[in-house]
Design brief:
The complex is a heterodimer of chains A (739) and B (316). Chain A is built from 17 helices and 34 strands. Chain A has 739 residues and is of the alpha+beta class. Among the domains of chain A are: 2-35 and 451-583, Aldehyde oxidase/xanthine dehydrogenase, molybdopterin binding domain (Aldehyde Oxidoreductase, domain 4, 2-Layer Sandwich), CATH 3.30.365.10; 381-449 and 590-739, 2-Layer Sandwich (Aldehyde Oxidoreductase, domain 4). In chain A, helix 9 runs parallel beside helix 16 and helix 12 packs parallel to helix 13 (518-541). Chain A starts with a strand and ends in a 7-residue tail after the last helix. Residues 157-162 of chain A have low confidence and may be disordered. The radius of gyration of chain B is 19 Å and the shape is globular. The N and C termini of chain B lie far apart (51 Å). By secondary structure, chain B is of the alpha+beta class. Among the domains of chain B are: 5-52, Uridine Diphospho-n-acetylenolpyruvylglucosamine Reductase, domain 2; 225-315, 2-Layer Sandwich (Enolase-like, domain 1). Chain B contains 12 helices and 11 strands. Classes of the chains: A alpha+beta (739), B alpha+beta (316). At the A-B interface, helix 3, strand 32 and helix 17 of A face helix 8 and helix 12 of B.
Amino acid sequence: MKFDTPAGQNPIDRLRVVGCPTDRIDGKYKTTGTAAYAYERHDVADHQAYGYVLGATIPKGRVRAVDTAAAKAAAGVIAVVTTLDVPKLGLGTMNYASLFGGDRIQHYHQAVAVVVAETFEQARAASFLVRIDYAPEAGRFDLAAEAPHAPPAKADSGEGSGADGAERVGDFEGAFAQAPVQLDATYTTSDESHAMMEPHATIAAWDGDRLTLWTSNQMIAWAKGSIAKILGIPKQNVRVDSPYIGGGFGGKLFVRADAVLAALAAKAAGRPVKVALTRPLVANNTTHRPATIQRVRIGATRDGTITAIAHESVSGNVPGGVPETAVDQTKLLYAGANRLTALRLAELDLPEGNAMRAPGEAPGMLALEVAMDEMASMLGIDPVEFRIRNDTQVDPNQPDRPFSHRDLVGCLRLGAERFGWAARNPAPGQARDGQWLVGMGVAAGFRNNLVMKSAARVRLDAAGTVTVETDMTDIGTGSYTIIAQTAAEMMGVPLDRVVVRLGDSDHPAAAGSGGQWGANSATAGVYAACTKLREAVAQRLGINSADADFAGGEVRAGNLSVPLAQAAQAGELVAEDAMEYGDLAKRQQQSTFAGHFVEVGVDVDTAEVRVRRMLAVCAAGRILNPKSARSQVIGGMTMGVGAALMEKLSVDKKRGFFVNHDLAGYEVPVHADIPHQEVIFLDEVDPTSSPMKAKGVGELGLCGVGAAVANAITHATGIRVRDFPLTLDKLLAQMPDAA
Amino acid sequence: MKSFTYERPGTPAEAAAAMAQRPDAKFIAGGTNLLDLMKLQVEAPSHLVDVNGLGLDAIEETPEGGLRIGALVRNTDLAADDRVRRDYGVLARALLAGATGQLRNQATTAGNLLQRTRCPYFYDTAQACNKRQPGSGCSALDGVSRQLAVIGGSDACIATNPSDMAVAMRVLDATVETVDAGGTGRTIPIAAFHRLPGDEPERDTVLKHDELITAVTLPKPLGGVQVYRKVRDRASYAFALVSVAVVIQPDGTGRVAFGGLAHKPWRVEAAEGELPRGPKATASAALAGAAPTPDNAFKLTLAERTLGAALKQARA
């Protein structure tokens, strides 16, 4: 099905199932431990052996020799495969650091060997007996040192935020120089780890030259293609299966070392092998969100009209890698006739930087939305009003290109009202609650909506059960449930008549989970397949499909009313289709918007920051399942608190690695850090996105919220820190005398 | 984890004797720290002597009016004991500021005193660490040292002791009771129990290899207002950047010990005379001679301000 004109009235608009707050249909499996994650799929292959991955202990150089004699002789060991045993392997799609093979070491904890044994403990013990002789080389590990000579970059994050090296509208420099009020500030953000609960894990089994991977991966079709490319085998010989995923956040968009080494180890061992990356390897062996240094300049008239805006960012990556596209939102978020955005990229010998939830916008909004707060303060204008004053209903780079639907103003106005913004004293450092200095902060939330081709197959059996099969993934987001809701709505059956099977590469290829495109795109694919199934049902029942109403488990047309199941009495009906997109998204800019409001307390003595209240008002088209959408948004808000206050991979700039490579050292918010979080969705639809009229929310909740935390800290204390995360050591020196 | 043998003796004397026979053995109680370290091969004992069968889990009143806490009393039980809550509030608060409910259920009093540093270089066996591998060097000295010691360190080691409980024990002047393989017992003041790293950072305490902690004794209650203030980067389940244990008497005199600053709980009795004059005077006396890194110099300011907060709380 082709989607190239805005959606009209369709069966989804009935909202009998879609749009209702619905418990996740996989919830009972997850809460009872019966949803089998990759490492626990004991039943899929017999005689599974255990692989343990060794990471390189130098950040750059060469492996001269590997001595595996002692490891091979250790108890229970079946095989040892070292990086010198295989030639340098190919790279997967959108990956830039070698996963295995050959003698070159590009980063700390790059995989150099896998030890296979009868038990996990035996494999781990034997791994300590592998002796590796390295020839280390000097490397570059300090972004600040490399930034001054980093060249311009042209990039696409792979999630739609494509930023050119530099993009100009009008005359930024001239307009900025003439602006009566000018802000020129530099912000830094830290390297961050996905730190998902389930580390990367795979069971691999070969049947002749056919490979099956039971794994944990967000993008099944990408994984299938990439593993074939990396191993040099035909794509049709690979099956990837990933029905449950314990968090990904972009860290599982790609095939990682667990999958590659499980496949190689299974070959060497002659039996299935399971491999999980240990927690320390998640930080340095896999990908991370790269640190950035961002300069934002804003020029405005005294009445608060932006006349010039520039956002430049430099980040680092492995040679051949891509920059963090931190300036993209600045192209679209605010008006202003004269504009400049630019990216530069330094080569670093740290692990590969790549997508992490809302790549680009997550760190970019930290800088832009703090800059907006600083500018509002310089202008003496309320920060909510300053943002509203500079709203735009068109793409500022192409004024003839409107937003499909944009209600940032509505988000900010409603948020201000609900949060009690009017009671806020504009002067910082005035509110006090016992030991706490109290402040309120606001930021806009912004993330583009992307549409991706997505296919599904739908079956109707004689019992009236509708089964959906697609390789779409559920990374904890609620995909199972919204897909079931879509099929139930389309076929006119209750939710419990729908079975959803996900994550198997033998199913039709869906959009996958990334870039907050999954919900709208994958359900639109199911819409397409169900439309076809409805036609097949109507034909089987001898009804004109245009006249048929699918409701209450029946097909109705005129006076006729037939149970849906009757259509499948003569045999199962199967329909398959994909939703494909025309150029609507090119003609109109599809984005999602939020108003983030945060109240913090800052301890007057110790400068500890505690978030007291949070509110997000979101405008993101139709909300398919308000319950799981809210979960997505509060999860994003929580991650934003992490980015604002604590998350940082600490770089040892001499030894070239992320030092705090476990969950004791890499701190993310715990329950005690997160107060009550309120989420409001504006009641809206966007007919340009798909027949679902929905947009993504999975990343919107994260974009901007950290800046609202930072702005609240400034309001509480009068102190402005531009270096994220805002740990208390950065505030202490400027805190008022406490004695 | 290296393969290891295991035994579970029935008496403290047998446990100490078992250790004496095996120089490569370690005691195991709650295992909340040791097992993690064994998985990473930071610790690689080839024999474990499990002390969980020794009893040693009672909290008894002493003739002197104090409390004798069995070595195996779990952190949860110790923090919940009515006598501890009434008379040694700083200890209950320090315990509850540490780890998580699950860990406190498992962790023991003696094991808490013996937990090892959280220096990231100690945890990464590819990095130089004199504490883990004597003579290999110290990567932390010019590495990432935000969490590490600002005082009492050496050229060989700037690790910190991560315990909250030990800071409270130090301010309360607890004593540690032990027995060795020869059946000889001794009583070690907590002040002398933990060591500074010097040129032997691999030794955290003065215990001999075959010496088993049987109890920790608290002297009779000090009275006063008792506060434990722990500062960290998140609200729970994190090691202290700085912590402060204070006992303040109605006349303004008192005691103070710091956590997160050194290789041992940091208490300078001579500085406590400054307490009536406030946090600045007290902290500068207690922390004289500090040698922070650029990464952790903020801890000196933080220690002073945290002490200020604790004193305000004590006097409120």
